[in-house]
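The passage that follows is intended for readers who have already worked through the single-chain material. We present the inputs for a multi-component assembly, then the predicted structure in tokenized form, and finally a short commentary. You are encouraged to pause after the input and sketch how you expect the pieces to fit together before reading on.
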Amino acid sequence: MNSSRHPHQPAAHPPGPGASTALEVRNVTVRYGSVLALDEASAVIGRGRICGLVGMNGAGKSTLFKSIVGSLKPQSGSVRIAGLPPAKARRAGLIGYVPQAETVDWDFPITVREVVGTGRYGRTGITRRLTRTDQDAVEAALARVELSELAGRQIGQLSGGQRKRAFVARGLAQGASVLLLDEPFAGVDKRSEQMISTVLREAADSGTTIVVSTHDLHALPDLADEAILLMRRVLLHDSPAEVLRPQNLALAFGLDPLGRPTDTRRADEAPADGGAVAEAEAAAAGDAAAADENWDGETR
Amino acid sequence: MNILHLLADPLSYEFMTRALIAAVMVSIVCALLSCWLVLIGWSLMGDAVSHAVLPGVVLAYVLDLPFAIGALVFGFLAVILIGAVRDTSRVKEDAAIGIVFTTLFAFGIVLVSVTPSDTDLMHIIFGNILGVSRQDLTQILILTIAVLLVVLLKRRDFTLYAFDPTHAHAIGMSPRLIGAVMLALLAVTAVATLQIVGVVLVVAMLIIPGASAYLLTNRMSMMLIIAPAISVGCSLIGLYISYYADTASGGMIVLAQGFVFTLVYLFSPRQGVIARQLKRRRLRSAL
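Having made your guess, compare it with the prediction:
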């Protein structure tokens, strides 16, 4: 078992290894040059759970996502998605990814419907032509995020919230069993935020495992079943309420109101400056696509 | 009647017919590739690869191999070297591109100067469309049709690669492989295009049609129709003008493309600077 997990794990859904394990990250360490971005990060998330990923900029949230998708190769540790290493999980279409808004070219000549359609590409033939079934899945996903009427628009002609909904719809159309969302609520209006939360909950209820990195701490208890507090390593993996307790947040955000470690057990994990990591992450982001695609998730 | 005559007259010469067929095929292929190059931001890469293939073409000639093989080898060599210089030194990518392709191009020029052949250095640099032999035309047709087939089969992969390589990767596709295929197409296309407009102007054919189409539409599927249409139109117009005005054909073709881009840049209904200016003024007066 993972030593960094908090003992007060909610008993209803014990996220231990087993048949219900959808995502398993074990001792993943990532360095960008001399900068340590992830330090022996471990977490196990059960099927159909929504897990919030909380931490300051540079805490390693994006790095953790990239390690799960397999677009970067950790120096050590392993990742399993439904028991499969990342390369196999990708080929099986198990991993869906909703990117941060800043990484998308909103001027790209592609319609909302076409974006959602790319969610089905893993199931298509050599020319990626969508079949009737694919098209039905695309329309159903568009309807679920209420974008059917705007589906013919160029993607950049949507509002911030609608854009995010389009990418969530892509994940739905894909039918991924693990859906990773990188800051889905940044720059999103209340209505879209609510809708995305509802849609994610429906997806989770039908068995999709969802990991959401978010700065929106207030929405976390309503959204997520559990939360991970990340500061290069997993400081805490517990219920959202527990993670959001001030003394725990202080560990990750350095907001200690008393000016001293609130929990002596974790004093050695006091927050460090994440700026260097953020910089390294940003630099590495551009290379993500070019990174080793065939990393098999094994320890090297 | 008179105009028909004007159009049909050059076709009575076999070299003009060959030139027209070659120009049309090359225009279509270049224009299709240009759509993705412009969207990915690979215009400079197109420039680099089209120049860097020169030594490969000359060596292939010396070794009596197909030109495309030499071009592929040196096209990839250029990309690998650019990546190496960029990643292993503090030199940035644009400088790395500038260093690598000019050096390879210079190597090609030196090779041409010491290679006894009937190919004139000036023809390689500025093109020799009116000198396209039957054999040349066969080669151009094979290369362009091969590229066309790959593009038709994999166009959706290219578009997804240009739009969201991370998603492509996440669903089990290989962005690295798609990128490599695109570079290979680029190198092969550069060989075919070299004969039409010359090494120096290949990059124009690989950027201008796509950039023009990008300013005219919001749909990729339309871009892939508009860009070749512009490109073919410009090649025909440029070729006819060069026939009657007795000007350099390669230069005339690219000049026509530059002219069309200028028109689009100014007058495109939504993206043109004039339309945008008018819209801004209307918004301001509405306030």
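Commentary: Chain A touches chain B at residues 69-71, 90-93, 95-97, 99, 103-105, 108-111, 114-115, 118-119, 121-122, 126-129, 154, 157, 170, 174, 288-290, 293 (CB under 8 Å). Chain A has two domains: 20-94+209-285, 96-175. How closely did your sketch match?
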